[in-house]
Amino acid sequence: MMLSDRLCQEIDARRDDLIALTQDLIRIPTLNPPGENYREICDFLAQRLRGKGFEIELVRAVGTPGDSEKYPRWNVIARKEGAQPGECVHFNSHIDVVDVGLGWTTDPFGGELKDGKIYGRGACDMKGGLAASIIAAEVFVDLCPDFHGAVEISGTADEESGGFGGVAYLAEKGFFTPERVQHVIIPEPLNKDRICLGHRGVWWAEIETFGEIAHGSMPFLGDCAVRHMGAVMTEMEDSLFPALAQKRTDMPVVPEGAKQSTLNINSIHGGQAENEPDFNGLPSPCVPDSCRMVIDRRFLIEENIDDVQAEVMQVLKTVGERRDQFRYDVRELHRVLPTMTEKDAPVVQVVAKAIAATMGKEADYVVSPGTYDQKHIDRIGKLKNCIAYGPGILDLAHKPDEYVGVDDMIDSAKVMGRSLIDLLVKPEASAA
């Protein structure tokens, strides 16, 4: 029997272990914000993988956004050295999950198994992918103790809030250099027959308009900052949004609507702060002298970040030409450039071959509408040979009743295991 067939057979035999592992991970509520139970889940993963012969490093991202004594940003990196020198394959999964939200019909942290699906916050995004990579790696090292190179598995913090306490910090510390790691697979939920090559870019900024406070009964004595912001939004509707809709990309971005440039108004805050929930009085009558808007601009690999910013500045310039006393400030909050791994990259070719062998179809190639931790591996680690591949349906991420299919995890684990064989086992051994 071929080694790859034996590997797939063994993964099938560990179905119950895969289910239990996924449930255990879901039942650790690693909510971000604020960053709960990071150390608990890292210790859980460390104990499991240490028992399989992996060397463990626990790394706290001291001083990164959100890190505190109450909510320390912990990461775990597990490494298994082969018997012979060779390349390193790294599976990176984030351990944090987003807020639960409303509308659940199952326990968000119960890990309920029903009709072949495991439900819970993070089941799809991305504890199912983490569990699948662990099973794949464990089966591989059991069947191939003489493999060449190394296998790494990491559980990292804060991907949902930018990844600065996770992959970005580790990349800065040298964990993702091309000398240490040669192939990276991030098991994000992009569907089991898809390879995600990269993502669009993002520019977050806060726009603030200014006015003058005055009594609400005499607004003519003040200057309303909210009305100024209203004019900004009107100009965006009239000029910027139509212009963005005309920009299209050759990147295989999914879903279809994300093949154009987009702008989301994330939030608007104007005037007085909201009252505390236990206060039932009325606000004071004041003309607001400040209004802040956070924008989330997603841009294409064909666009330049300077042009992206200039388009927003042109909106503000146009408004200023039409309104007296228009004053504003713009503060950049976050920027990530688009990234896309080439289809002929080694990790892409190997995973595509494994998808075809496992599922009997050619792999689809996609690009994510939003960013994920590939941005840090690429820009900080300078490692281009990186993709996202994992089980789960992208549309379920961050939704109520999030789930991951057990069969999808099994198939994805087989793809990951076959990829390890191709990358770390000599041809004569893989035929045994």
Structure commentary:
It is an enzyme of class 3 (hydrolase). Belongs to the peptidase M20A family. This is Succinyl-diaminopimelate desuccinylase. InterPro entries: ArgE/DapE, Bact_exopeptidase_dim_dom, Peptidase_M20, Peptidase_M20_dimer, Peptidase_M20A. Keywords: Cobalt, Hydrolase, Metal-binding, Zinc. This protein has helices spanning 3-13, 15-26, 38-50, 123-143, 167-172, 225-245, 305-322, 346-359, 374-379, 406-424, 427-430; strands at 55-60, 74-81, 84-94, 113-114, 117-119, 148-156, 183-186, 194-199, 201-210, 262-270, 290-299, 327-336, 339-340, 364-368, 386-388, 403-405. It is elongated. The termini are close together. The chain has 432 residues and is α/β, with parallel strands linked by helices. 45% of the residues are buried. It folds into 2 domains: 3-199 and 338-430, Zn peptidases (Aminopeptidase); 201-272 and 282-336, 2-Layer Sandwich (Alpha-Beta Plaits). It has a 6-stranded mixed β-sheet with strand order 1-2-6-3-7-15. The chain has a 4-stranded antiparallel β-sheet with strand order 10-11-9-12, with helices on one face. The chain is built from 11 helices and 16 strands. The longest helix is centred in the N-terminal third of the chain and has 21 residues, at 123-143.
